């Protein structure tokens, strides 16, 4: 009887355990199937444990050979063809360290995650918005092939590059078509990446290759002229001085400065190594291109560490890059958005302008194609206005999403620590978000990404991450703060008056110890941008302390009336959060050359076949055409209205803090000084003209700040 009772109890216990396990399993399955911003499980699995990489040249229709890396998932389920995620880059698809010593390898392994010498996009590659290697491995493990191509005139590709030339778009189209035709491709292609890789996606999508099913462009402008060449019509001088792109395009080896040559495509001597395919740098100046007179002189071919003979495939490709047109030549010559420049294509001279080659030139075709677009920006990125414009303009014709965080152009930001966030954790989540997006549109997985609220923003100094249904927010209330006496901001128009400001060319809006840069130079500073001291070199207007937390989310605008002792001038506007101790932290900023004071329909920023597109949101647009510029706008004592939209933001001014507008008339050396005032572009030149600015504030000239306040 006792044994029988034991058996009954045992059976009962087993039955309960089975029920419990089944229930837990069911519960876990339910819990695991989650799809929301930055969180994704249960819809797809990491089934592939490894990958196989190969490299080859792909020939374009004009005969130019482009270097391409292909990564295919392995060690997983039997699968012959995969959807493909594709990056099309001028920044090098992979790098190589030519002379790594055995004793250096442990340090390299510890610092970049691989023993070397090849640093590629699956083993060690950090880039804009996090580490590409983590994203690539995530895609590979979930059954995506990954392809990365060097643009013509860059990396190990052949050809010459003219920034923003139509040939780059045509190459993107041909590469997507080539991917579609490969046996390892299932015919569905998605693209991702930031900055120039955001641009390359838009122009490729504008060619409407049928295999391109989705794009995830990050941190780049809709209008290239005001985004990168002349924000507010003022030449971005510092960017034209950078050597980075030239070093990359010519494959310099300057390890102390972080430059490595792009990895070769072909192992010509068949020894299983690629580092010995880099020609010797005989004079040790970082480049091998000035060491040989080949190919003009067949008796002076490149030399190699192993002394073996080669066809010089790598050298000959990089040699063609010497004919590239650098941005430092192009930018200064483009004073107006309708300025034209010539370039040679296939022996023919062609003419383009910022209108015809900017990202916006591709919008009409993209809207007609209906390709899904996930726009990603950062509040501290100089292109964030363009991020909101792309989303708002495309959302009615294309499946569209928008995410904006607290990052600078590269994603990193001192604000993350300021708001108590783990920067690395935040940036790592973007791979998950891309996986959700590509699963939906490349694999057809119904994971709900297309039915959730389309906007996801980081509310700085307030709620943190939150979803929204639109941009700008429907519940915003535009509130005016008027310039008033004694440098104050008031909610009512105060007594008439004027404020004088003597231009200070020493005003330099860079900060930090290591980068010494501003958002406009597209690099993250190492310190929070505190403007307390810079405000002493500026004209400021500050509110009384806030009596309650005040959220500003949207596009702030400063509308003010100015006269000057000079005929023209530049204006840099800063919105700041001032705490109880007077510490002023930058929130956002804007700028304008006064000669572009006229306002025009913002739809005219897109011309040609794209006319008729309704550009949204409705923001101030100053035309920037040559005929719209007045180089004597202040002549004869004219009082001129200047309307400056600041870059969009989402910020909470805490109770007890004040809101400040700070106005300066120079930001050198980031931006040029107006040539009429300083022909030498030197703030210390004793011959500079130093104007006195008058800001007018009265009923006829109600100078004020307009903020999109969100009721809380």
Major sheet: 10 strands, mixed
DSSP summary: helix tally? 15
The portion of residues assigned to helices is: 10-25%
Overall SS class: alpha+beta
The figure for the number of domains is 3
- Looking at the structure, the CATH topology of the largest domain is Rossmann fold
Which strand order do you get reading across the main beta sheet?
Answer: 3-4-8-5-9-10-13-14-15-16
Cα-based radius of gyration, to the nearest Å:
28 Å
State the distance separating the first and last CA atoms: 72 Å
CATH-level-4 superfamily name of the largest domain: Alpha/Beta hydrolase fold, catalytic domain
List unreliable stretches of 5+ residues. Answer: 1-30
User: Briefly, what CATH class of the largest domain?
Assistant: Alpha Beta
Number of E strands:
29
Mean pLDDT: 91
Strand content: 25-35%
Q: Just name the CATH architecture of the largest domain.
A: 3-Layer(aba) Sandwich
- Principal-axis shape equals globular
3D architecture notes:
- This protein has 712 residues and is α+β, with helices and mostly antiparallel strands.
- The protein has 3 domains: 2-32; 50-96 and 116-231 and 354-468, 3-Layer(aba) Sandwich (Rossmann fold), CATH 3.40.50; 477-597 and 633-710, Sandwich (Jelly Rolls).
- 21% of the residues lie in helices and 25% in strands.
- The chain has a 10-stranded mixed β-sheet, with helices on both faces.
- A hairpin with a 5-residue loop joins strand 3 and strand 4.
- The longest helix has 31 residues, at 2-32.
- It is globular, with a radius of gyration of 28 Å.
- It holds the Pfam family PepX_C.
- InterPro entries: AB_hydrolase_fold (IPR029058), CocE/Ser_esterase (IPR005674), Galactose-bd-like_sf (IPR008979), Xaa-Pro-like_dom (IPR000383), Xaa-Pro_dipept_C (IPR013736).
- This is CocE/NonD family hydrolase.
């Amino acid at each position: 009887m006792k044994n029988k009772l034991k058996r009954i109890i045992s059976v009962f216990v087993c039955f309960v355990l089975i029920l419990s396990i089944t229930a837990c399993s069911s519960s876990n399955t339910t819990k695991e199937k989650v799809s929301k911003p930055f969180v994704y499980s249960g819809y797809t699995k990491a089934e592939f444990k490894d990958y196989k990489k190969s490299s080859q040249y792909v020939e374009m229709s004009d005969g130019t050979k482009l270097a391409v890396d292909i990564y295919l998932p392995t060690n997983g389920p039997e699968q012959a063809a995969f959807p493909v995620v594709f990056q099309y880059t001028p920044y090098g698809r992979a790098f190589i360290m030519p002379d790594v010593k055995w004793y250096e390898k442990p340090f390299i392994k510890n610092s970049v995650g691989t023993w070397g010498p090849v640093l590629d996009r699956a083993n060690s590659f950090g880039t804009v918005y996090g580490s590409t290697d983590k994203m690539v491995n995530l895609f590979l493990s979930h059954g995506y092939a990954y392809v990365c191509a060097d643009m013509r005139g860059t990396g190990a590709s052949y050809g010459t590059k003219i920034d923003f030339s139509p040939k780059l778009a045509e190459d993107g189209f041909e590469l997507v078509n080539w991917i579609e035709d490969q046996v390892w491709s299932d015919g569905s292609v998605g693209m991702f990446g930031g900055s120039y890789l955001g641009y390359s996606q838009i122009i490729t999508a504008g060619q409407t290759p049928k295999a391109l099913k989705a794009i995830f462009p990050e941190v780049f402008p809709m209008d290239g002229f005001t985004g990168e060449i002349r924000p507010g019509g003022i030449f971005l001088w510092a960017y034209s001085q950078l050597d980075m792109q030239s070093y990359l395009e010519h494959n310099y080896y300057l390890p102390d400065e972080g430059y490595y040559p792009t990895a070769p495509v072909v192992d010509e001597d068949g020894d299983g190594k690629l580092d010995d395919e880099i020609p010797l740098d005989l004079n040790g100046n970082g480049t091998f291109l000035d060491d040989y007179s080949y190919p003009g002189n067949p008796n002076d071919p490149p030399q190699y560490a192993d002394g073996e003979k080669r066809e010089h495939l790598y050298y000959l490709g990089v040699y063609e890059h010497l004919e590239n047109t650098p941005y430092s030549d192009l930018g200064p010559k483009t004073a107006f958005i309708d300025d034209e420049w010539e370039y040679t294509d296939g022996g023919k001279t062609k003419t383009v302008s910022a209108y015809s080659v900017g990202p916006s030139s591709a919008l009409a075709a993209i809207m007609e194609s209906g390709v899904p677009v996930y726009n990603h920006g950062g509040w501290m990125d100089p292109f964030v206005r363009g991020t909101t414009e792309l989303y708002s303009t495309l959302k009615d014709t294309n499946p569209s999403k928008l995410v904006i965080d607290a990052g600078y152009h590269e994603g990193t930001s001192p604000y993350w620590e300021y708001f108590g966030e783990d920067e690395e954790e935040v940036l790592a989540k973007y791979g998950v978000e891309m996986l959700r997006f590509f699963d939906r549109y490349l694999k057809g997985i119904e994971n709900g990404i297309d039915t959730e609220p389309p906007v996801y923003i980081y509310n700085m100094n307030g709620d943190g991450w939150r979803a929204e249904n639109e941009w700008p927010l429907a519940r915003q209330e535009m509130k005016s703060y008027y310039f008033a006496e004694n440098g104050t901001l008031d909610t009512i128009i105060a007594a008439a008056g004027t404020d004088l400001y003597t231009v200070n060319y020493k005003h330099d809006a860079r900060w930090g110890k290591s980068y010494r840069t501003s958002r406009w130079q597209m690099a993250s500073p190492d310190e929070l941008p505190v403007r307390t001291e810079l405000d002493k070199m500026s004209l400021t207007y500050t509110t009384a302390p806030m009596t309650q937390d005040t959220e500003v989310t949207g596009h702030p605008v400063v509308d003010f009336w100015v006269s000057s002792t000079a005929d023209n001038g530049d204006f840099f506007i800063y919105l700041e959060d001032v705490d109880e101790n007077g510490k002023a932290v930058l929130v956002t900023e804007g700028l304008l050359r006064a000669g572009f004071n006229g306002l025009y329909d913002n739809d005219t920023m897109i011309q040609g076949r794209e006319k008729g597109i309704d550009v949204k949101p409705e923001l101030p647009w100053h035309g920037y055409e040559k005929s719209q510029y007045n180089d004597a706008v202040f002549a004869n004592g004219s009082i001129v209205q200047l309307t400056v939209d600041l870059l969009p933001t989402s910020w909470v001014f805490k109770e007890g803090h004040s809101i400040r507008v700070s106005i300066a008339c120079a930001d050198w050396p980031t931006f040029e000084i107006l040539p009429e005032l300083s022909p030498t572009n030197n703030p210390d030149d004793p011959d500079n003209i130093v104007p006195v600015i008058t800001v007018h504030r009265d009923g006829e000239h109600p100078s004020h700040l307009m903020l999109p306040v969100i009721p809380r």
